[in-house]
Amino acid sequence: MEKDVATLLSLHAESLALFTDRVHSVRADQWDDSTPCTEWSVRDLVNHLTAEQLWVPDLVTDGLSTEEVGDAYEGDVLGDNPRAAWDTAARAARRAFAAPGALEQTVRLSYGEAPAVAYCAQMITDAVVHGWDLSRAIGAPERLPDALVGFALEEVTPYAAELSKSGLFAAPIEPPPADSHQARLLALLGRRA
Q1: Which end is more exposed in the chain, N or C (fewer Cβ atoms within 10 Å of the end residue's Cβ)?
Q2: pLDDT of amino acid 172
Q3: CA distance linking residue 102 with residue 156, whole number of Å
Q4: Overall domain count for the chain
Q5: Which residue from 166, 149, 160, 146 is spatially nearest to 190, judged by alpha carbons?
């Protein structure tokens, strides 16, 4: 899919804003609650997304490979203030992708070289889907912005069936009969809206 850089950066900012809103909505007594990601608590989910953002400056700005970064972001990256840790990581990721020429380069991911625009698109999709996971876990509104849902659905559809083979994603499920784009996106990723 051909990606317009300005649109991609706008969607990236919007996806981070969505997740930021949900992180700031987590009550003190909810951090250990379960999420639709069965292995993860609310804290684990926010930790995962925060670590994902921490990778971006290393891979995009510094040109490092995932092997060179190694296990720098394994374990707890949230510390005593999960909201501040998320905010700092999200701002750094946004700056890295928005830097002049950043999306015109190639990044070195765990599965090989990829265009930075494809990496950014993956990060948007991850933030959107996990934004829904976090919304459900904390009782926040689950309706996601149409533009983000449409983008993520278009992004993930070509490879959704392969994701479950990695063991990191649930198998796709059948969406409800009167499905929406959001229900289809979630079903592709093994989630029931």
Answers
A1: N
A2: 77
A3: 23
A4: 1
A5: 160
pTM of the model: 0.93
Tell me the H-state helices in 99-139.
116-138
- What is the number of other CB atoms lying within 10 angstroms of the CB of residue 87? 17
Question: Which tokens sit at 45?
Answer: 């989910």
Q: What is the distance, to the nearest Å, from the Cα of residue 49 to the centroid of all Cα atoms in its chain?
A: 6
DSSP 35-72: -SSTT-BHHHHHHHHHHHHHHHIIIIIS--BHHHHTTT
At a CB cut-off of 8 Å and minimum separation 6, what does 6 contact?
Answer: none
- State the first-to-last Cα distance of the chain, in angstroms, to the nearest integer: 26
Is residue 154 a part of any domain in this protein?
Answer: no
Angle 177-45-41 from CA coordinates, rounded to 5°: 90
pLDDT digits (tens, 9 = 90+) for 30-82: 999 999 988 899 999 999 999 999 999 999 999 999 999 999 999 999 999 99
Instruction: Residue 114: give its domain's CATH number.
Output: 1.20.120.450
Q: Containing domain of residue 70, as a range?
A: 5-145
